[in-house]
Amino acid sequence: MYQLKINNRHDIEVSRTGESLLINNTKIEADIKHIGQGIYHVIENNRSHRVEVVSFNSSDKTAEIKINANTYTITAKDQFDVLLDKLGLSSLNSARVSEIKAPMPGMVLKVFVSEGDEVKKGDNLLVLEAMKMENIIKSPAGVAIKSIKVKAGDKVEKGQILIGF
Asked: Which pTM value belongs to this model?
């Protein structure tokens, strides 16, 4: 089962059971032939359609499809995405980051940023030594540094706030 949003306006539900294709719980009888790289010929209700997959991104579950002369942008959600939405967990990925906490007890060896700096996702923030290993703490998102709570040589405990955004 997939929930599709077409051009950010129309919602449809598509599912497949065996050889049958259901769109919004209505069985669709169509003859679909693959005729080339991303190109299909579809006959449905005695009407012929040329369908071309212009772009496809499996990780984002998005596609751009051209049917005859019209182009459509499609975003898909599978049953797991729908379940995460129902549980209210889909917005966790977009949660705003407000601070970095120490992932383990240790000692701050070096701080690479200053208050007011703009950093990108993945930029180095500081080096934390724990159990004789140096761990580079990186920025989880593109943010502005509001406050730095530690300096080189400080000992920190697990969960202690190191940097605020």
From this structure: 0.50
